[in-house]
Amino acid sequence: MFTTTLAAAVLATSAYLPGPAWTADYNTAAKQAVEQGKPIAVFIAGGSEGYAQVVANGTLPAEAARTLKDKYVCVFVDTTTEAGKATAAAFELKEGFVLSTVGGKHQAVRHAGAVAPAELSKELARCVEVTTVATTATNEAPAVVAPAPVVRSSHYTPSFSYGSCPSCRGSR
Question: Which of 24-33, 74-83, 120-129 is predicted with the least confidence, judged by mean pLDDT?
């Protein structure tokens, strides 16, 4: 009887534990996301609890923690490890977070650097049901592409007239 009561108490309180379960393996998380029909939340930062560094005040808000725990498959990429550096390079982020669509097929949100707690909670709530994405939402500046330089030739460029071309050896 005591064992049953203790087991029930442990199971009941585990549902109220504050934080999400983090995995370091993105491939495992991707498989879980498909099996569970959940999106993936990838947090990239350094240190054992670096995911909190992604939040501007250093603390994962309770609402965000609850949403992550209940609605997402969570990945933490520790950039102080070689494997973490490689995964961060694949995401092209040094610090930040990426939220995927349900099943992890597409990126829905990509945020470089720290995020305000309220914004994190808002983005997590918004992306829970997203299945398709036309454009990934990002806080990064778009890449600036310089226009092609104008090349001016110092040589005379001939124009062919009279309907003939010297290489065709045709004439009118």
Answer: 120-129
Question: What is the C-alpha to C-alpha distance for residues 37 and 22, in angstroms, rounded to an integer?
Answer: 17
Q: Exposed (0-12), middle (13-18) or buried (19+): which is 148, by Cβ within 10 Å? A: exposed
pTM: 0.68
Burial class (CB in 10 A: 0-12, 13-18, 19+), 90: exposed
* Residue 99 CB coordination number (10 Å): 25
User: Using an 8 Å Cβ cutoff, are 95 and 87 in contact?
Assistant: no
Are 77 and 27 in contact by the 8 Å Cβ rule? The answer is no
Outline where the chain has alpha helix (H): 2-14, 26-36, 62-71, 82-91, 117-127
d(CA 164, CA 172): 7
Residue 65 is encoded by which pair of tokens? 């923690």
